[in-house]
Amino acid sequence: MITFDDFAKVDIRVGEIIKAEIFEKARRPAYKLYVDFGGEIGVKKSSAQITDLYEIENLIGKQVLAVVNFPPRQIADFMSEVLVLGTYSKDGVVLIQPERTVQNGDKLG
């Protein structure tokens, strides 16, 4: 069990995917995502294993939720700066998205 204070340390924000590329050097199929979190945080990169359910052309413009305060993680030759959130479903990872369009950078609360 964690406390509410532990949970409050996790900074989860809304960002918009502005660019996506196939991550050729990843061990498992993945995309390189470039996510805009607005003025305070800016554009951050993420490696995401979401190729089962998402095509690159359908990702651009999607708002997603991501943890923005984990330390960066080196994955092959790519530095992943945020963790884009999704659920592990039977068909693959499903991205967590706001129910309606909100401001990039809005915080989960």
Order of helices and strands: HEEEHEEEEEE
Please report the distance between the alpha carbons of the first and last residues. Answer: 19 Å
Mean pLDDT: 97
Q: What is the global morphology?
A: globular
Number of helices: 2
Structural class: mainly beta
Question: What oligomeric state do these chains adopt?
Answer: single chain
Q: Residue share in helices?
A: under 10%
Which stretches of 5+ consecutive residues score pLDDT under 50? none
- Strand portion: 35-45%
Question: In order across it, which strands form the biggest sheet?
Answer: 3-2-1-4-7
- Work out the radius of gyration: 14 Å
Give an overview of the whole structure.
By secondary structure, the protein is mainly β. 8% of the residues lie in helices and 40% in strands. It has 2 helices and 9 strands. A 5-stranded antiparallel β-sheet has the order 3-2-1-4-7. A hairpin with an 8-residue loop joins β1 and β2. The longest helix has 5 residues. It is globular. The mean pLDDT is 97.
